[in-house]
Amino acid sequence: MESAQAKWRERFGGFTARARQERPLLLLLTLVATLALVAGMQWPGVLAGWLLLLLAVVARKPAQAPAAERQMVIEVEPVFDPMPQVAATLAALDMPALVLGQDAIILFQNKAAEKALGALPAGSHLSARLRSPGILDMVRETIATDEPNQIEHSERLPSERVYTLRIAPIDFGRVGDQPDQAPQKLYLLSFKDISELRRIDRMRSDFVANASHELRTPLASLRGFIETLQGPARSDPAAQERFLAIMFDQATRMSRLIDDLMSLSRLELKSHIAPDQTVDLKPLIGHVRDALLPLAEDLGVEIRTHLPEGKVEVLGDRDELVQVFENLIENACKYGQEGEVVDVYVRNDPTEPVEVSVVDRGPGIPAEHVPRLTERFYRVSVADSRSKKGTGLGLAIVKHILTRHRARLIVKSEVGKGSEFTVRF
Ligand code: ADP
Fold first, then answer.
1. How many C-beta neighbours within 10 Å does residue 392 have?
2. For a pocket test of ligand 1, which of 335, 382, 423 has the largest count of ligand atoms closer than 8 A to its C-beta?
3. How far is the CA of 370 from the centre of ligand 1 (A)?
4. For ligand 1, is residue 323 a contact (CB within 6 Å)?
């Protein structure tokens, strides 16, 4: 029945449309035919006239809207598909995010998620990539209850990262009156990267543990000597003199450590404020060399400075820059002692950034240690550092000061040849 109608429409549709178009002409012809009949014409003429009249009536009202109009009606039907908007919004987000449908099927993955988890084909189940039962239970629960949930999750590949995974239903409100107009239920699974927070937490607790350990060691030694002085060495002046000298060294080490810890925490407080004084590095380097001459002489090291013509001005805090170069030159003298010479180069080429390099000809630093030297309490050899009155905080302080000065520390070292610590402003 349907197809017979369609065939009829196909065959005669064009004809009726044409007739509709020519309606005024048809009416005129009908009128002429009627008049002819009235005027006494024969039957064939009358029949033709009435036929024309019939055609005019058929053409009066369209039986159905033309095809183009029918097409438009279909387009504006209120079926709401939220996916394009959701996808466009999430594509602009720098945090990994997936859109899941009911049954935990992945409908969309943004670029950040693609980078973090690898490309996941749309239409695959979440468990194809995230197999952790904790995550899958959480997703199932949210789909069942429509309540948001979150869980912590770590990924090993492509790199070790820790995330807070959160799933929440996306609420589009009510769209239209009909139940079949409601959009499909969607869920947003987002990944908040907390690896950096975790790293800072770990560093902080390591730092407290290290600081306590560093302070406890000289303190334990002080207590031991006090007990000895109170007991066995009570009436031994020679032992007392020896022990008191050691105790003095230990107490000095503790106060050095406390000074360095205080320095670090003061620097942390103002790390975001850039210094605004102008400092000439030439007299500053000269001052640091003079202050370190007694130590250098004790160690048998010569400090040679190589300074350019004119002033070498940078924006900085004078006292802090003194601390930077004191640390670097003192380290070069202590750890590069066997090279016997420490060279300090100040460079001020008009086209290059200002640089100060401290070069020693000591034993050098094995490559695996170089990236970690500025970590607090990191030492290539703890015993070596202690014997040289080190605290393990010198380069951490240098790094903090340079960060505040928007300057960089570049370390080059070759085992057996020596080390070069360059400050680039
Ligand atoms: P410390 O108080 O132990 O000197 P630093 O933070 O100043 O602490 O230095 C960290 C470690 O880096 C030192 O313990 C030492 O092992 C190494 N180091 C620093 N400077 C040099 C250098 N010029 N040559 C060889 N090793 C160095």
1. 19
2. 335
3. 10
4. no
Q: How much is the pLDDT for 77?
A: 52
Residue 281 and residue 317 in contact, taking contact as beta carbons nearer than 8 Å: no
Q: Is the pLDDT of residue 96 over 90?
A: yes
Residue with CA closest to ligand 1 atom 2: 390
**Comparing 36-50, 222-236, 350-364, which segment has the lowest mean pLDDT?**
36-50
**For residue range 229-251, what is the model confidence (pLDDT) as tens digits?**
999 999 999 999 999 999 999 99
Closest CA to 342 of 328, 355, 324: 328
Which domains can be identified in the chain, with CATH numbers? 2-63 (no CATH), 83-193 (3.30.450.20), 200-269 (1.10.287.130), 278-424 (3.30.565.10)
Confirm or reject: Cβ of 357 under 6 Å from ligand 1: no
Please tell me if the CB atom of residue 418 comes closer than 6 angstroms to any atom of ligand 1. no
DSSP string for 109-160: E-HHHHHHH----TTSBGGGT---HHHHHHHHHHHHH---EEEEEEE-SSS-
Counting from 1 in the atom list of ligand 1, the atom nearest the Cα of 389 is 2
Q: Considering only residues 189 and 2, tell me which one the structure prediction assigns the higher pLDDT.
A: 189
Its pTM stands at 0.64
**What is the CA(387)–ligand 1 centre distance, in A?**
12
Q: Whose CA is nearest to atom 20 of ligand 1?
A: 331
